[in-house]
Write a structure and sequence with these properties.
This protein has 399 residues and is mostly beta strands. The protein is built from two helices and 21 strands. The protein has helices at 2-16, 56-91; strands spanning 116-117, 120-121, 130-143, 152-168, 171-186, 191-208, 211-228, 235-252, 254-256, 259-274, 277-278, 280-281, 289-290, 293-308, 310-311, 315-328, 334-339, 342-347, 354-366, 370-380, 385-396.
Length: 399
């Protein structure tokens, strides 16, 4: 299944003409006598590695948990974010006056209302109700070394396929299926892991004039493979898990001729578990048993989006800039492990409570119901993570 999923992702990537750099991500690492290879201070440096800041084994096991948790949380959020990005930009093209410049049109655009949502919004012809879409997402995350965990580098790729249906001028329903592949490398070649996730989601949008409410719910499953340890003393782990996610956004669109300003608030929650597993050992390495682990993320954000709709001979071009301030409510969590008959409870990294997310997007709304979009987002003022992500999507409103 893993090969088929990667093949499908690569095929669609070629069709959409996008190339994303691929890094790797990781799990824990120890040598045969239970002591770990010392990590360096930066993920990319594998020489002159300093000693671990605390207990190497604990730091690496915490980082393994954080990398898997990160894959699940970000894969679920990337689905709702990617779907919402297209909907937000396309909404800026729909305005009560009926045309991007604010002038009355002699076509049926003059009778349009603001609608759309999720991946849906008015096409230029406003002729169809059912709109299939496909979105590719890629992200790279660098986690810094701390006293609780080693640094790691993580790359994620996601493929989303879905459709939405306009019930009436003010209400949209949609569904989406996604496949995500996350790879992690711990610093100093201490280990690596691969996490696949499969998610099914549904969303809805409701409009009251310029005010909109977007809701998203989803359920996903995880497939996790990890390998760690020194050469000749490798430890391999294999397990699975599941998670559910929910997302709620409330915003308002202010149109000033071609300019649109849209403040919004958003609440996102993800909760899941990783099933119990025991590593298998090669050489003299001591296997570790990881008990069932739960993870959770709950954050709220306040954002403002500014877009400008420019009419062209072929349609409408809409650049958008979004600035979001994010607050995380869930603190540090714990994992339970045992090795050689000794059990221990470890406390994970405390997430950054407040940080910012900046996104730039560009939507091309063509005639006859076709549209395409591109977005780039980056974390700002996050002391633990550096993260960049890209979305590329196409959508077609059926006649």
């Amino acid at each position: 299944m893993k090969k088929h999923g990667r093949y499908l992702f690569g095929l669609v990537s070629c069709l959409l003409c996008i190339s994303l750099a691929q890094a790797q991500t990781g799990a824990t690492g120890s040598n045969g006598d239970g002591h770990n290879v010392p990590p360096p201070s930066q993920p990319s440096n594998t020489s002159d590695a300093p000693a671990c800041k605390n207990d190497c084994k604990k730091e690496e096991e915490v980082s393994s948990f954080e990398s898997v948790k990160g894959s699940a949380v970000t894969s679920s959020k990337s689905v709702s974010t990617a779907v919402g990005t297209m909907g937000r930009a396309l909404r800026s093209q729909s305005r009560p006056s009926g045309s991007p410049s604010g002038q009355k049109s002699n076509s049926n655009q003059g009778n349009r209302r603001e609608k759309g949502g999720g991946a849906s919004a008015d096409s230029i012809t406003d002729s169809g109700r059912l709109s299939p879409f496909i979105i590719i997402n890629g992200a790279e995350t660098d986690k810094r070394e701390t006293s609780k965990g080693v640094a790691f580098e993580q790359t994620e790729k996601s493929l989303l396929i879905g459709a939405d249906y306009r019930l009436n001028a003010d209400r949209i329903l949609g569904g989406v299926a996604s496949y995500s592949d996350g790879d992690t490398d711990l610093q100093a070649n201490l280990g690596e892991s691969a996490t696949e996730s499969y998610l099914l989601g549904a969303y809805a949008s409701q409009y009251w004039g310029g005010i909109y409410l977007d809701a998203f719910i989803g359920y996903g499953e995880l497939d996790i493979e990890s390998e760690r340890g020194a050469s000749g003393n490798r430890l391999h782990g294999s397990t699975d898990g599941n998670f559910h996610t929910a997302d709620l956004s409330l915003g308002i669109n202010h149109h000033m001729q071609a300019l649109s300003v849209s403040p919004a608030v958003r609440l996102s929650h993800t909760r899941g578990k990783i099933n119990r597993y025991t590593e298998t050992a090669a050489g003299t390495a001591t296997p570790t048993t990881f008990n069932t682990q739960t993870f959770e993320s709950l954050n709220a954000s306040a954002s403002i989006s500014v877009s400008y709709a420019t009419p062209t001979d072929w349609g409408v071009l809409i650049p958008t800039a979004t600035f979001a301030y994010i607050h995380e409510y869930i603190g540090a969590q714990s994992i339970e492990t045992s090795a050689a008959g000794q059990a221990q409870v470890q406390i994970t990294e405390a997430p950054v409570k407040n940080y910012k997310d900046i996104e730039l997007s560009l939507v091309a709304q063509f005639r006859r119901g076709a549209s395409a979009f591109f977005s780039y987002a980056v974390y700002a003022d996050n002391e633990l993570f550096d993260r960049e992500s890209i979305n590329l999507g196409i959508r077609y409103e059926l006649p």
